[in-house]
Design brief:
The structure holds two protein chains of two kinds. Chain A contains five helices and 15 strands. Chain A is of the alpha/beta class. Chain A has one domain (about 5-210): Glutaconate Coenzyme A-transferase, CATH 3.40.1080. Chain A has a ten-stranded mixed β-sheet with strand order 4-3-2-1-5-10-12-13-14-15. In chain A, strands 7-6-11 form a three-stranded mixed β-sheet, with no helix packed on it. Chain A is globular and about 50 Å long. Chain A starts with a helix and ends in a 10-residue tail after the last strand. Chain B has helices at about 10-15, 35-40, 60-65, 85-90, 100-115, 175-180, and strands spanning about 20-25, 50, 70-75, 95-100, 115-120, 135, 140-145, 150-160, 165, 185-195, 215. Chain B is globular. The relative contact order of chain B is 0.19. Classes of the chains: A alpha/beta, B alpha/beta. Chains A and B meet through helix 3 and helix 4 of A and helix 4, helix 5 and helix 6 of B.
Chain lengths: ~220, ~230
């Protein structure tokens, strides 16, 4: 089983040189730590920044400089600031190449639920609905099962959805899976030491297995 | 140049009545109009509708207005940092309209720009789409969303001049400049107020035509929600 950092590390391998990327809160934020130094990518923060830098040194903390998770951050050479309408023009206009975000559930046709638990959690969708409706490539980072052990890869989402037919790839603590255009999770890679049978038993949506499934390489 | 200055926050918000529709700039606690929020707390008004991306935290920002039960309805995209908000909502004391953040930003922008409605892909197939007109363009389905306007938009900038021209700093810009044109009256509080001619016209983010009142705020706390540092 992969740790959260290992999930982030595996997702970082999906990043391509020259991409503009939006990272969601949680595991997706960790992906930034594993992007190779020789790769030129730009991270977008939906509250109005392209070119997110590392967390600042204590003496450089600026309350006027935060990311979408409200954490204090820094800027890089060539960073640019803009307003919220401009930020989402970038997102909806398809200028952000890759979106990596967390999920509570993903269905076998690529629907995602990550914003609401009726009667329990009222937080709001933030920018997630705009992101999933627009990005050309959406990767989900999440645990394979909920804390109570229920599969989060389902035939159909049970929670209110954030977007339809949008997830392309999922990296969990157990596996890398792709969403088949006609429905179903294609098992692409296993986490080290995890068997296909393990993954099968923890995936309640349709699982497609084509021949030998290799172990992930880091 | 037309002089838009008012004495202070108290003078700027004095005529805001109960039941008013307000827009307030800020993302999290960054770029919120702290002085105007304090001045509103001293007014005996309620039933406000507030358009703001977030709802502050329990004891700061819009959270203070919620605590005093001055707010009837919030129109926001994310309200996760405020337990009092969640309590009032689950008890039915507060109405909330949760809107995708990009849709919220564009509805505000459209409201100030004379565009009554637009089509967006955000929310298609979700609860957000319920009751809304959809239309297909080039094989993709979009939702029709209406523009938002307010009686007052209350914003915060870094620098401004007496004519209402504004410059923002860092990610404190966020919703502030787009809310200015969407309010019948825009109140801008700034950290530094200068005379006309002192700002470089090339550097101005928000033209003063949208701003009706401006004052220099004081005692900015600029509270940080999540202080993250590297060694």
């Amino acid at each position: 089983m992969l740790s959260k950092d290992q999930i982030a590390q595996r997702i970082a391998k999906e990043v391509k040189n020259g991409q503009y990327i939006n990272l969601g809160i949680g595991i997706p934020t960790l992906v930034a730590n594993y992007i190779p130094d020789d790769m030129e990518v730009v991270l977008q923060s939906e509250n109005g920044l392209l070119g997110i830098g590392p967390f600042p040194k204590e003496e450089d903390v600026d309350p006027d400089l935060i990311n979408a998770g409200k954490q204090t951050i820094s800027m890089l050479k060539g960073s640019v600031l803009f307003d919220s309408a401009e930020s989402f023009a970038m997102i909806r206009g398809g200028h952000v190449h890759l979106t990596i975000l967390g999920a509570m559930e993903v269905s076998e046709n690529g629907d995602i639920a990550n914003w609401k638990i009726p009667g329990k959690m009222v937080k709001g969708m933030g920018g997630a609905m705009d992101l999933v409706a627009s990005a050309e490539n959406i990767i989900v980072a999440m645990q394979h099962c909920s804390k109570s052990g229920e599969s989060k890869l389902l035939p159909k989402c049970t929670l209110p959805i954030t977007g339809v037919h949008c997830v392309k790839k999922i990296v969990t603590d157990l596996a890398v899976l792709e969403v088949h255009p006609a429905g179903g999770f294609i098992l692409k890679e296993r986490a080290p030491g995890v068997s296909v049978e393990d993954i099968k038993s923890k995936t309640s949506g349709k699982l497609i297995i084509n021949g030998e499934v290799p172990e992930m390489v880091f | 140049m037309i002089n838009k200055t008012v004495k202070d926050a108290k003078a700027a918000v004095a005529d805001i009545p109960s039941g008013a529709m307000l827009m307030m700039g800020g993302f999290g606690l960054s770029g919120i109009p702290e002085n105007c929020i304090s001045a509103l707390l001293d007014l005996d008004i309620n039933n406000l509708t507030i358009v703001s991306n977030n709802a502050g935290v329990d004891d700061f920002g819009i959270g203070l207005l919620l605590k005093k039960h001055m707010v009837k309805k919030m129109i926001s995209s994310y309200v996760g940092e405020n337990a009092e908000f969640e309590r009032q909502l689950l008890q039915g004391e507060l109405e909330v309209d949760l809107i995708p953040q990009g849709t919220l930003a564009e509805r505000v922008r459209a409201g100030g720009a004379g565009i009554p409605a637009f089509f967006t892909p955000a929310g298609v197939g979700t609860e957000v789409a319920e009751g809304k007109e959809t239309r297909e363009f080039d094989g993709k389905v979009y939702l029709m969303e209406r523009a938002l306007k307010a009686d007052f938009s209350i914003i915060k900038a870094w620098k401004g001049d007496t004519a209402g021209n504004l410059i923002f700093k860092g990610t404190a810009r966020n919703f502030n400049p787009i809310m200015a044109p969407a309010g019948k009256i825009c109140i801008a509080e700034v950290e530094v107020l200068v005379g006309v001619g002192e700002l470089d016209p090339n550097e101005i983010h928000c033209p003063g035509i949208y701003v009706q009142r401006i004052f220099q705020g004081k005692n900015y706390e600029k509270r940080i929600e999540k202080r993250t540092v590297s060694n």
